[in-house]
């Protein structure tokens, strides 16, 4: 059983997935951030691979990516940093990034290397369904990586079912038709989450975009298996001092 | 001509037929030109792009659309634009040179052919809000213009750096009623303005149409923009026939930023293998200077702004900032159609430095009394790199006029009295 499946078998309510850009705030923060998140009570960690043109991210995440790139973060560097992380960290870890750097690295190579260091799954928002089935699915399966698709309030029921059937691990429900870090009113999102809940999908559902504190986390968890926090956490550890303490405080106020 | 399936429109009075190309170089149903193209978009864009993909051909080839589009091209844009035999320039280069005068289009460049088409499309899709990206501001002005024409809200994303560099066009957009929003992410230029426009579109999945300014972006944009620009080569064919007795020139030359004027100038010649297609990229300060925008020379297969194409990037796949003296050619990619024309050898790709483009612009000004845009200066300069025959009929797409580049031209004249 994959680490992600295992997690949801043990815990299917209030699962907290936290996103952080690899190489942010400092180049070598990756492991410290990961360990701090684990210690603070995160259930799943999403490491972002910084990219020059991150279309599906909001300004906070893009800015963290710009810093990470200036710090010298690359995929090669990330795999070096992750070489022994499985000795310390047993939580499922997924990588989030854009397809262009992966193609340059060599997609098959990338998947092999990710699996080798102990990565559990991938979120690559600019690989759409058609391309996934044609070119990428078989490679990810071969290396035992889960692939997580996004759905939005605009996605039709038929399409949600298709994306669910192609996903493994969990399904990523974008909370609004907006971007990460947006701070819109959250209530209209509820009916959409309820609709997802009623669809009885194959995969657990985690809600992302706009989750930033206890109240938004609670709303998401009312209808789904948990939620993903990105921009708010990135802001919380800005500057890079006392990452462990700041992470503890931030996660503490979300989950308690 | 065997590849062209022509759907007759009700109104043939303009003399322009609309062909749905099923030629060798047309994209497949998923928007692939060979291995280039496609739609690499996040799910948040799916609704908008899918709506466009399923509807664009039916809308564009609807007789009522064609009627309105033709009318506007004629009365508002000023089409057909002349095909002008450039006598003195022809003498200079030893060939028969014809200039396709897109510089005489309303707003001063070919860009408006596309924005007129897309605004009519947006209306038929029921959209209430238009967004666009712009680099030099030409596409932004062309978009703001058609939005004013139709009374539709217009938001133009423009890199913060470009806003500073292109003040007159920013003022024009504002005067036309558009809101110009600075792109402050990344390198603060065209590629970042494009990112911001795409993000805006994701955040507005219902009421907004995104008017992309070149043959780039996810399918169906490259094909749709190429169709709107194809009027250029459609006219060239009959105009050249009137002037020379033959519809087919030996060569067609056009500059390539994203590639929309070139796509339009090549479109109806793609399957005419006797016509040599010449695409001219910006070499900047030299292909190997580190300050260049010659994508086919410096780029590798990659994905940018939703399609697979040739992309200028680092070894790690981070998109790099290109350089060209002409803002309209300063883009780190090219449309997927052009990547395929390059890869398949159908088109020949040349590149021209900042300096040579400037020289060519001054030469055309002196010899023909036409001040071309800096982008077009690149196309003219390519004449120096070609072996020409006295009897060759050569068409150059004069994509735009040089008014927007006067500040650059003035600086050059201050520094170099000889030009
Ligand atoms: C006059 C002119 N020519 C050419 C271009 C390049 O664009 P494209 O390659 O899409 O024709 C521009 C873009 O701003 C332009 O203004």
List the helices and strands and how they pair.
The complex is a heterodimer of chains A (256) and B (419).
Chain A lengths: L2 H8 L4 E7 L7 H12 L3 E5 L10 H12 L4 H7 L11 E4 L2 H7 L1 H11 L3 E3 L5 H14 L3 E2 L2 E2 L5 H10 L4 E4 L14 H10 L6 E4 L5 H10 L2 E4 L1 H6 L6 H13 L1
Parallel strand pairs in A: 1-2, 1-9, 2-3, 3-4, 4-5, 6-7, 7-8, 8-9
Chain B lengths: L3 E4 L10 E4 L10 E2 L2 E2 L5 H18 L2 H15 L5 E3 L1 H7 L2 E6 L9 H14 L4 E6 L3 H13 L2 E7 H6 L1 H9 L3 E5 L6 H14 L4 E4 L9 H9 L1 H14 L6 E5 L4 H7 L9 E9 L10 H4 L1 E5 L2 E5 L24 H8 L3 E7 H15 L5 H8 L11 E6 L7 H10 L4
Parallel strand pairs in B: 6-16, 7-8, 7-10, 8-9, 11-12, 11-16, 12-15
Antiparallel strand pairs in B: 1-2, 3-4, 5-6, 13-14
Helix pairs in contact in B: 2-4, 4-5, 4-9, 5-7, 9-11, 10-11, 14-15
Pyridoxal-5'-phosphate binds next to helix 5, helix 11 and helix 15 of chain B.
Per the principal axes of the C-alpha atoms, what is the gross shape of chain A?
A: globular
Largest sheet of chain B: 6 strands, mixed
**Strand elements of chain B, count:** 16
CATH topology (fold) name of chain A: TIM Barrel
Total tally of structural domains of chain B: 2
Task: Note down, in words, how this protein is organized.
Chain A has a single domain (3-255), classed as Aldolase class I (TIM Barrel, Alpha-Beta Barrel), CATH 3.20.20.70. Chain A has twelve helices and nine strands. By secondary structure, chain A is α/β, with parallel strands linked by helices. Chain A is globular, with a radius of gyration of 17 Å. In chain A, strands 5-4-3-2-1-9-8-7-6 form a nine-stranded parallel sheet. The mean pLDDT of chain A is 94. The two termini of chain A are 29 Å apart. Chain B has 419 residues and is of the alpha/beta class. Chain B folds into two domains: 35-76 and 111-225, Rossmann fold, CATH 3.40.50.1100; 78-108 and 230-415, Rossmann fold (3-Layer(aba) Sandwich), CATH 3.40.50.1100. Chain B has helices at residues 43-60, 63-77, 87-93, 111-124, 138-150, 160-165, 167-175, 190-203, 221-229, 231-244, 260-266, 295-298, 336-343, 354-368, 374-381, 406-415; strands spanning 4-7, 18-21, 32-33, 36-37, 83-85, 96-101, 129-134, 153-159, 179-183, 208-211, 251-255, 276-284, 300-304, 307-311, 347-353, 393-398. In chain B, the strands form five sheets. Chain B has a six-stranded mixed sheet, sandwiched between helices. In chain B, strands 9-8-7-10 form a four-stranded parallel sheet, with helices on both faces. In chain B, strand 3 and strand 4 (36-37) form a beta hairpin. Pyridoxal-5'-phosphate (PLP) is lined by residues 109, 135-136, 138-139, 214, 255-262, 328-329, 373, 375-376, 399-400 of chain B.
